[in-house]
Amino acid sequence: MTIEAFDRVQLDGTGIDRITEDEVVAAVRDALAHGRGGRIVTPNIDILRRAAADPAVRRHLDDADLIVADGMPLIWASRLGGAPLPERVAGSSLIWSLSEGLGRDGRSIFVIGGTPARKASAAGSGDGAARAAAKLAAACPGLRIAGTISPDYGFELDESTYAGFCATVIGAEPDLVFVGLGFPKQEDVIERLRRDLPRTWFVGCGAAVNFVAGDVGRAPLWMQRSGLEWVHRLGAEPRRLAGRYLRRDAPYALRLLAWAPRWAGRR
């Protein structure tokens, strides 16, 4: 299934692909089989809000090959607009399904993100990216691990460190790279790497590496499906997330749902 087969639902100026998680995996496998790389962005309410106000954020979305809805409010808004998206496609789920799909083809992944080794909760347990990659490899027969990096905070501010980081990823020549550094830092990293890895796929996956590594617990399935995963995350990290979720994202989500019937629709 090719990427061109999908149309897009417009939500506040952002086009979201009408695509299921299984179709994402099929499209990426097909593209890799034909030597084509690409990039997947998984916007949630916070990213959609920022894209509506910030041209730099919008640029990251405009440059993506696939844009999938990582958030139930986006699904609800598309339904109110009369062009429903088929399902939520979260980065924290894609890291598993894409790894399983690439394992079928004997392909490789590179995992970026997670807790650096010196900050890991258990002595000698290794960094988060390595632990996540080990779990993915164990669960996905045929999957190869091209490499892992859990960079220290602020690594991108030192050009020598940043260049070495990029050289490591590029030298590994992975088929797919999961970049879990948070938006928009992960998108900036992907933009830089893509120039030298045109046949590689990239997924900005936020906290997914931490979820897989076991450093952060994901919400129960019923909360994910009911649109309440943000409540679980707020409870786990209130100081970091309260301002974003309660003061900025929640009011925007309400406006999105109220305005959806005016501009939601297919591209």
Any overview of this molecule?
This protein has twelve helices and eight strands. With 267 residues, the chain is of the alpha/beta class. It has a single domain, classed as AF0625-like (Rossmann fold, 3-Layer(aba) Sandwich). Strands 4-3-8-7-5-6 form a six-stranded parallel β-sheet, with helices on both faces. It is globular and about 50 Å long. It starts with 7 loop residues before the first strand and ends with a helix.
Shape summary = globular
- Helix-strand makeup class: alpha/beta
Mean pLDDT: 87
CATH topology: Rossmann fold
- Poorly predicted runs are none
Number of domains: 1
Pfam families: Glyco_tran_WecG
Keywords: Glycosyltransferase, Transferase
Organism: Actinoplanes flavus
Protein name: WecB/TagA/CpsF family glycosyltransferase
Write the layout of secondary structure elements.
Elements: E1 8-11, E2 14-17, H1 21-33, E3 38-41, H2 45-53, H3 55-62, E4 66-67, H4 72-80, H5 91-104, E5 108-113, H6 128-139, E6 144-149, H7 159-172, E7 176-180, H8 185-194, E8 201-204, H9 208-213, H10 221-225, H11 229-236, H12 238-263
Parallel strand pairs: 3-4, 3-8, 5-6, 5-7, 7-8
Antiparallel strand pairs: 1-2
Helix pairs in contact: 1-5, 2-3, 4-12, 11-12
